[in-house]
Design brief:
The structure holds 2 protein chains of 2 kinds.
Chain A lengths: L3 H16 L20 H15 L21 E2 L2 E2 L1 H10 L6 H5 L12 H16 L1
Antiparallel strand pairs in A: 1-2
Chain B lengths: L7 E6 L3 E7 L6 H4 L9 H19 L6 E11 L8 E12 L2 E10 L2 E12 L2 H8 L9 H18 L3
Antiparallel strand pairs in B: 1-2, 2-4, 3-6, 4-5, 5-6
Classes of the chains: A mainly alpha, B alpha+beta.
Chain lengths: ~130, ~160
Amino acid sequence: MASKEEIYAKVSATLVEALNVEEDEIKPTSTLQADLGAESIDFLDIVFRLEREFGIKIPRNELFPEAVFQGDPEFVQNGKVTSKGLAELKEKMPFADLSDFEKNPEVSNFSDLFTVDLIARYIEGKLAAGKN
Amino acid sequence: MRWIWIDRFVEFQSGKSAKALKNLSSAEDHFRDHFPGYPVMPAPLIIEGLAQTGGILVGEANQFQEKVVLAKIPKARFDREMIAGEQLLYDVEILMLRPEGASVLGKVFVDGVQTAEVEIFFAHLDQSRSKQIFGDHNFVFSGELKHLLGLAKVAAQSGKDSPG
């Protein structure tokens, strides 16, 4: 099975191709939108490339869920994600590191969750699950 | 001027690949300015031809139910200029095809030699949202492009009829 380093290297190479960025611009904590300039269509491109690169299936809304907080009006109040919303987020995105987001769970900060590291963790989980 | 940048399909494998020809004629308006005395086919029009070949291929894979729109060109490489009088073969294969969209790899050949390679990404416009905006009418595969669909069907049919 691929090591963490190998997975990260492949994820990084995938982002170089999909987002037309230099490899040294990509850091584990880089956010896809703010730091690497990803636009909406790029997310689908990234999904396609990851599927081909790792030979996995990424169901729609699994890695980059759309409208997480629209399922219930109690998920968000006054622009902040509620504890109920955070629980939903944990369930939908177990691969996300929410420690920073929980400190200031403004909905507008949501896109910052999507980092290079998040993709690598998602792939690790996916490959590990495939082994079982 | 009609916005059709391929002349005819020569091969069509549903859901897999398509080949189309484009003859570069001095009569095309753009050659007058691009460039005077040196008629180079503008690269964006070559990409458009590849995108029309690929768009039809992707659309046909879903029986033209989806609105297939060109969303992104992640990569384009041109090895040389292509000039009036040459015949371009657009060879496009589907890399990924999913409900949300598709990606294709398009290659251009002149006399059997590859002259360009372009990756094209198509999105399927969200069914529910595009219906609100555009109604049921599929504006992508209408009008001029319908003509191409006819050509594609003829190519697909002749492929089935030919032995082997």
